[in-house]
Amino acid sequence: MSTFKPKYITFDCYGTMTNFQMGPSARRIFADRISPEQMEAFVEDFRVYRLDEVLGDWKPFKDVVRNSVERTCRKWKLEFREEEALEIYHSVPTWGPHPDVPEGLLKVAHEIPLVILSNADNDQIYRNVEKLGAPFAHVFTAEQARAYKPRLQAFEYMFDQLGCSPTECMHVSSSFRYDHMSAADLGYGARVLVDRNHEPNLAPNYVTHVIKDMGGLAGLVGL
User: Fold this and answer.
1) What's the Rg (C-alpha) of the chain?
2) Cα→Cα distances 29→14, 85, 92, Å
3) Which of these, 177, 172, 154, lies nearest to 208 by C-alpha position?
4) 86 Cβ partners below 8 Å, 6+ apart?
5) Element (H or E) spanning 11, and its range?
6) What is the block-wise mean pLDDT of the chain (223 residues), using blocks of 10 residues?
7) Where would I find the H helices in the chain?
8) Contact 21, 124 (CB under 8 A)
């Protein structure tokens, strides 16, 4: 296996490292109004609206969640309840990592600086990062960049702060739509899919490596 020693390894946080719970939260909250047979279609609509909400001008993540819930309810002809959207938003800092993440990160953290670029608000992300169990050199948010991934502006903000180019870095994510398509367009030196079955697998069109969990990362950088 060929190895690439990046100047930084940049990561998506939610879904890739933190166990993403938007879908499970929606399944629980709407279980009394959506039948089991329809629930996956409802959750998929909620996912699609979240993506659509981050493609324009930056807005607080609380508004992204609120608008996505409201639009999903409108499509399904359900009453929108503000408190339910807030319940989902306020649950985010309680989410912990996938089991493979802490050990996998520690294998590389003391050799190569780790960086997070997350579609998050500043007041939530650090509580999730604390649970990852490894040191991060930098944590950048959509709030700081004033743009969400997959917009290139989010990545460009990070590279301006790091003072390096995409070709010098490796990006690690479980999402093609939010991360790897943009990372490929930017010319990252390496693009690593953590295959958590979140989306249809588009490798090798957008990624250079695929790993089944974070434990495979160290081998890609020769550690």
Assistant:
1) 17
2) 20, 10, 15
3) 172
4) 62, 66
5) strand 8-11
6) 86 98 97 98 98 97 98 98 98 98 97 98 96 97 98 98 98 97 98 93 90 97 93
7) 22-29, 39-53, 61-75, 82-91, 101-109, 122-130, 142-145, 152-162, 181-186, 217-220
8) no
